[in-house]
Amino acid sequence: MTPQFVSVAPLSGSVGGTTIRVNMPGATTANQGLDIKAGGASICEAVRVVEYAIVECDTLAQEISSSALQVVDSAGTTYDCVNSDTSQC
Predict the structure, then answer these.
(1) How would you class 18 by CB atoms within 10 Å of its CB: exposed for 0-12, middle for 13-18, buried for 19 or more?
(2) What is the largest CA-CA distance in the chain?
(3) Tally of CA atoms within 13 A in the half-sphere of 43 that contains its CB
(4) Would 1 be classed as within a structural domain?
(5) Most CB atoms closer than 10 Å: which of 20, 42, 53, 65?
(6) At 86, phi and psi to the nearest 5?
(7) HSE (CB half, 13 Å, CA atoms) of 81?
(8) What does each C-alpha distance from 61 to 5, 32, 44 come to in angstroms?
């Protein structure tokens, strides 16, 4: 199954850094080298797939723009939000 970026939580956090969880059916612990980006720039200090469909990102200590998030794999494939309610991404 091709991974699909469905949602992220929480939708807000601390400028000191926050752990966010991305709901991404199709992502498994075999998916290494994932990154989460906003406005083309990485927002994560560390990214890990903790279980099927759940990707965690420890965000950098910075304010993150409100631009749409994207998940990018090590091959450069970009996954945009597929949720019809884009406010969930």
Answers:
(1) middle
(2) 35
(3) 29
(4) no
(5) 20
(6) -65, -10
(7) 15
(8) 23, 23, 9
